[in-house]
Amino acid sequence: MDEQQLLAEQFERNRSRLGAVAYRMLGSAGEAEDAVQESWLRLSRSDTSEVENLGGWLTTVVARVCLDMLRSRKARREDTLDGGEGRAEPIAADDPAADVELSDSVGIAMLVVLEALAPSERLAFVLHDMFSVPFEEIAPIVGRSPEAARQLASRARRRVRGAGADGEVDRQRQREVVDAFLAASRDGDFAALLEVLDPGVVLRADEIAVTISAERREAGAPLLAGEVRGADAVARVFAGRARAARPAEIDGAIGAVYAPGGRVRTAFNLTIADGRIMAIDVIMDPESLGALAIEVLGAA
Q1: Residue 258 lies in domain
Q2: How many helices (H) and strands (E) does the chain have?
Q3: Structure-derived torsion over alpha carbons of residues 180, 182, 184, 190, reported in degrees to the nearest 10
Q4: N or C: which end of the chain has fewer CB within 10 A?
């Protein structure tokens, strides 16, 4: 097998992941396939002899391609708004059936919300929150520092958390999801938890939350890791817990807090899209809590 054939074989092993990244970035099966194909062309023209992680390298390449496509799309739309004669191209696939299938897997609401994000925000959010790419690797793609990339993802996360299927704030639906999540958690209803958790949900906890969970491990409490992925694993963490948690508005979106005596000790930032919880951020660090705008809510 020659070098080109070996590269082609390695590329095919990564094609599915690259397609998933590109689709979530672009929202179109046709454009996603174009981005993946461009990634192959760049791979075939590159010297990868010193690349240790080809999968990571390809993810970076397809992300750069998608970012360029998003910026080009945005520029075309701005030209149209400024009175240009051209017309912004719609997001459409060569194969409409493929778009429907992919849209079902990602969620129409999520795609609509992602479409409203700035290109750099969208890239940071998709790569980090959906594909676990570290901010240190995202930073050079968007031309920012790791901390700035983190802020891009954070802004995107707040917008996703606060948007409904039509792109507008849907507080009532958020509240229903949060109430269902807290009730299932208190009751230890594993099946009900799975109903409100996205299959790919990610649970992140800050260092203080992880430390306190470890200290309580001796008392039989479930151990809270820094990051837990998947509905089954996250449901196991929360089943029978959050008994004293209450719904709250956190930075304009509905989440939950643990606030004994009215003092917030723990915040649960929830990213909700398409009627399910996509991500849960457990925050116990006092400085981080102090930076949040929190209002504990009463009964619905």
Answers
A1: 171-296
A2: 14, 7
A3: 110
A4: N
Q: Which three-class secondary structure state does DSSP give residue 273?
A: strand
On whether residue 179 sits in a domain, the answer given is yes
Name the phi and psi angles at 34, rounded to 5: -60, -40
> Mind listing the pLDDT tens digit for each residue in 105-145?
445 556 666 777 888 888 998 898 878 888 899 999 988 88
Residue 164 domain-assigned (yes or no): no
pTM above 0.70, yes or no: no
**Residue pLDDT, tens place only, 73-97:** 766 655 544 444 433 333 333 444 4
Instruction: Please give the order of strands across the beta sheet that includes 227-229.
Output: 227-229, 197-205, 276-283, 266-273, 253-258, 246-250, 294-296
Mark whether 94 and 179 lie in a shared domain.
no
Q: Residue 199 CB: number of other CB atoms within 10 A?
A: 10
**Is 133 among the domain residues?**
no
**Among residues 198, 114, 200, which one has the least CA distance to residue 157?**
114
